[in-house]
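Hey team,

Sharing the Phosphoglycerate dehydrogenase run so nobody has to redo it. Sequence (315 residues) first:
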Amino acid sequence: MDVLFLFRIREHQEDMLRSEFPEVNFLFDRKTDDPAVETSEVIVTYGTDVDENVLVRAKNLKWIMVASAGMEQMPLGRIAEMGIRVTNVRGIHKTPMAETMLAHILSYRKKLKDVYEQQERSEWNQKIRGTELLGSKAMILGPGAIGGEVGRLLQAFGVRTYGCNRSGRQAEYMDEMVSFGGLAEALPEMDTVISVLPSTSETKGLLSREHFGAMKESALFLNFGRGDLYEEKVLIEALESGRPAAAVLDVFETEPLPADSPLWNMENVTVSPHISSHSGKYVERALEIFMPNLRAYLEGQADKMQNRVDPERGY
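Structure output:
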């Protein structure tokens, strides 16, 4: 059986896979124009290079392993029609992303930007006044694996956490829950608003002028989910009007963010170039999900595979 990797992994990881699965013919670091696309039963991809043309050629394809959590760039409708099994690596981003979000929140609340700027000027000024997280409230849109982890960390600082999902169903490390429909009513109480929502038909354009206008003048907004959660011009107008006070953005409508975007030069915006999930352990953690799944697949126990994705729903 051929298993095709459309990206590079380290040599010791290749050796580990060959040792664990001697019955499998692994083809590493190939491109979509490789003839092996036509024979491979499994394709492992980051999800940006499997399009309709690849599917037409992939006559033997039974399973796509996506080494990412996002699925929006894949032809999911066609994949569903073909009955191809899809899994992803949902959950492996939670540690680096939650740590990054917490770092930005603490930096903002403790006025570290001002501290650094003073040092550059060799200025001794004790008038900087940061605030505490203790006793504050945070709204987390998308309290899944990543949202739950940032909720856990925030709770350790004494923050009361509110989760927001489609149904309002309870989620781990959330003190209270609201549904998408109740979001606008809850926002005026929030000191921090964080989105880690995926891109789906229900989340595209979810945040409107009403939502931003309902935020506190002192609120910090972070988007670490997807850039189509709102129209970027709406967020820019909201930040210019002072609600929210500031934003940390790791995702954007257009990536890379165009050089002429106003976001680059706004004093109350931190532009993070979609790097919050970067970690030296990324592939290692992806393989920790892939290997048990491959074992289950080979043993005819596909129902036991982790992180199965419904192509029709996109998650």
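The radius of gyration is 22 Å.

Ping me if you want the raw files.
A.
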